[in-house]
Every structure is written in structure tokens, then in C-alpha cells.
């Protein structure tokens, strides 16, 4: 498996980085976080619509760029680097993958152009799932992301189907949930809604496939955030003076930084390997693809949590303050470690694949 980046892919990564460096600067992200909504509309417009990244993996026939998971992983690493407070992952990865995996030709023709054009999506049912019976969705789902600004709600049901609801559907209630990560807001959704036949993506296993692929690509976002934590820490220890010398000159600090770098680099390799396995898959059931996604997600979750914690420690007293950005990365690490499955859950899934292959 050759993970060397082509010039075209480097250009995609650099374009995303250049845009996000200004549009999602720490001050901009903090303004969105502290402004009450936790969402930056201008950032979304630029990233998803003007730059066209929302349609990166949407087929060209449906208005997208028709690129692959590796290209998406490179963009996700940059959105993770800045903790972009927008539902990019939910829209451009989970929703697009779900429609491709679960929708028929008519549903793909209806939803994919909307997603490529930047229709914001919330993902619900990743933990508890509502009931879908006789054309009606009832019950509730917690941990729905960016539901307060979504145009479409992607809901995993108790019978393993996917329902796509318009955000203004009668009988849908959105209640914000307090959460650790204020850069990715969560809500609890309550349903008592009539659902049209065309809004149900019913291909068996589609949601599981979308969640597995999504988990693999979430590893790229986590890698980007871990890389920023490392970079910011390296900059800090070069400047912080203690006992008459910069703390970065102490051997113990160098050892910690070296361990952090190894975690980040290994995480990046795992995330790119998962993306390559997704690209090599034909879109059907694929044990090798799923194994790579589970492995990447488990490793990236653990790596990001460790790097973010070490960054807090090496920043010393200032790292614990609300005014410093380090705590935002620490909180994203803790929150993302449980979203779309914990690291232990992904290791268990990987173990099952290995055992089934050996049987």
C-alpha cells in the first residue's frame, strides 16, 4: 500500500490549510464557542460551499468532485487541526457515505446534490436509536451533532435503517445538551414524525457501513488536532524559561515531545491506511476495509487523548486556564474518544473480524 501523497493531493491539503489558517484561527473558533451557537456560518460557507469541500467525495454525476477517502482524510486533518466549529464531518463524510451506501438511484439523485451544495447535516442515533414503524418515527436519540443549525437530520433507526428528515419536520424537537466539547455541540432529539417512503434509506447494513467508514475517517480529524497540540507545545517549550533556560532544553521534556511525535505520526499512518482501504473497497461488505477503519479509530483516539493530556502538562499552569486554547483540544480528545464508538469498542470489532477470518 503506497501512501505517498501526489502533487494533486498536496494541493488539496495546502488549499484547506491556507483557508482554515485564517478562517478558523484560534480567535475565530473561540468567538464561535463563546458566542452561544458554537457554529461559524462564514466558515461553513467558505469551506463547504465556496471551496467545494462538502462535495469532495460526492460523484461528479451528482455535483461533487468525485474524489476519494484519502483526499477527504487530508481535508479532515486540517479541520481537526483548527477544531473547525462546523458540521463538515457529519455532512461531507457520514451523510454522503450513508446516501451512497443506503440510497437507491432516485434517493442519491435527490440528496447528493444537496449535500455537495452544502446542506448542513446532523447525525443522530449513534448511541440510542428511535423506533421506525409503519411510516412513523418515534422515540428519541441523544448526542445528535449540530442539530441546532442543521438543514437535514440523518437518523439511524432501531431496525438498522436510515431516515433523512428535514430539520423543520413536524414532530421533531431539538433540545441542546450540555457537553464537554463546545466546538462540536450535541443535542437530544425527540421524534413523533411521519416519514415519507423516499426519505428512508433501506439497504441492509448501510448505517453500519457509514458509521464504520466515518469512524475510520474521524481518525484523520483526530490526527490533525493531535498535530496542532504537539506543534503548539513545541512552540511553547522553546519560549518558556525556567531555572535560567528554556524548558524545551530539559531531557525529560524532550522525551515527552518525542513520544508525542511518535503517537501523531503513527496515528497519521493508520488514518491514511484506513482511507486507502476505503478507496480500494467496492462499496460493499469489506472486512479488510472495516478492519483498517476500526484499527485507525482505536489508535487515533488513544493517541489524541495522550497527546492532548501531555500538551496540558507541558504548558504548566497556563494550560489549565480557560483563556488558553489547550483545554479545547483536551476536551475534543475526550469527547471524540466516545463518539461513533470508543477505542475499546473498535478493538472488539477488529478482533471479531480477525476471528471470523481465521474461522
UniProtKB/TrEMBL annotation:
Domain of life: Bacteria
Membership in a protein family: Belongs to the acyl-CoA dehydrogenase family.
Alphabetized UniProt keyword annotations: FAD, Flavoprotein, Oxidoreductase
Name of the protein: Acyl-CoA/acyl-ACP dehydrogenase
Molecular-function GO term, any one: acyl-CoA dehydrogenase activity
InterPro entries: Acyl-CoA_Oxase/DH_mid-dom_sf, AcylCo_DH-like_C, AcylCo_DH/oxidase_C, AcylCoA_DH/ox_N, AcylCoA_DH/ox_N_sf, AcylCoA_DH/oxidase_NM_dom_sf
Domain Acyl-CoA dehydrogenase/oxidase C-terminal: 207-354
Protein's organism: Sphingomonas liriopis
PANTHER family in alphabetical order: ACYL-COA DEHYDROGENASE, ACYL-COA DEHYDROGENASE FADE28
Pfam families xref list: Acyl-CoA_dh_1 (PF00441), Acyl-CoA_dh_N (PF02771)
Amino acid at each position: 500500500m503506497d501512501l505517498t501523497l501526489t502533487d494533486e493531493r498536496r494541493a488539496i491539503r495546502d488549499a484547506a490549510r491556507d483557508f482554515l489558517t485564517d478562517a478558523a484561527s484560534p480567535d475565530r473558533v473561540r468567538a464561535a464557542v463563546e458566542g452561544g451557537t458554537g457554529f461559524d456560518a462564514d466558515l461553513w460557507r467558505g469551506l463547504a460551499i465556496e471551496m467545494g469541500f462538502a462535495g469532495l467525495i460526492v460523484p461528479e454525476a451528482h455535483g461533487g468532485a468525485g474524489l476519494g477517502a484519502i483526499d477527504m482524510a487530508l481535508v479532515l486533518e486540517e479541520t481537526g487541526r483548527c477544531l473547525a466549529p462546523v458540521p463538515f464531518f457529519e455532512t461531507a463524510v457520514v451523510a454522503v457515505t450513508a446516501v451512497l451506501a443506503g440510497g437507491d438511484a432516485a434517493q442519491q439523485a435527490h440528496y447528493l446534490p444537496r449535500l455537495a451544495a452544502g446542506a448542513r447535516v446532523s447525525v443522530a442515533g449513534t448511541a440510542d436509536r428511535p423506533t421506525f414503524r409503519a411510516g412513523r418515527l418515534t422515540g428519541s436519540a441523544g448526542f445528535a451533532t449540530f442539530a441546532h443549525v442543521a438543514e437535514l437530520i440523518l437518523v439511524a433507526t432501531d431496525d438498522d435503517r436510515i431516515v433523512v428528515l428535514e430539520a423543520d419536520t413536524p414532530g421533531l424537537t431539538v433540545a441542546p445538551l450540555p457537553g464537554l466539547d463546545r466546538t462540536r455541540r450535541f443535542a437530544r432529539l425527540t421524534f413523533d414524525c411521519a416519514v415519507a417512503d423516499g426519505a428512508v434509506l433501506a439497504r441492509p447494513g448501510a448505517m453500519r457501513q457509514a458509521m464504520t467508514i466515518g469512524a475510520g475517517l474521524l481518525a484523520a480529524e483526530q490526527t490533525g488536532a493531535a498535530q496542532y497540540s504537539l506543534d503548539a507545545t513545541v512552540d511553547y517549550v522553546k519560549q518558556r524559561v525556567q531555572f535560567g533556560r528554556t524548558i524545551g532544553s530539559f531531557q525529560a521534556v524532550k522525551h515527552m515531545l518525542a513520544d508525542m511525535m511518535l503517537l501523531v505520526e503513527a496515528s497519521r499512518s493508520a488514518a491514511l491506511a484506513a482511507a486507502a482501504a476505503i478507496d480500494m473497497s467496492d462499496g460493499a461488505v469489506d472486512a479488510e476495509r472495516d478492519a483498517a477503519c476500526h484499527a485507525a479509530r482505536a489508535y487515533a483516539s488513544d493517541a489524541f487523548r495522550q497527546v492532548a493530556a501531555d500538551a496540558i502538562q507541558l504548558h504548566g499552569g497556563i494550560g489549565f486556564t480557560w483563556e488558553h486554547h489547550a483545554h479545547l483540544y483536551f476536551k475534543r480528545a475526550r469527547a471524540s474518544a466516545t463518539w461513533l464508538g470508543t477505542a475499546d469498542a473498535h478493538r472488539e470489532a477488529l478482533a471479531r473480524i480477525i476471528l471470523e477470518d481465521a474461522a
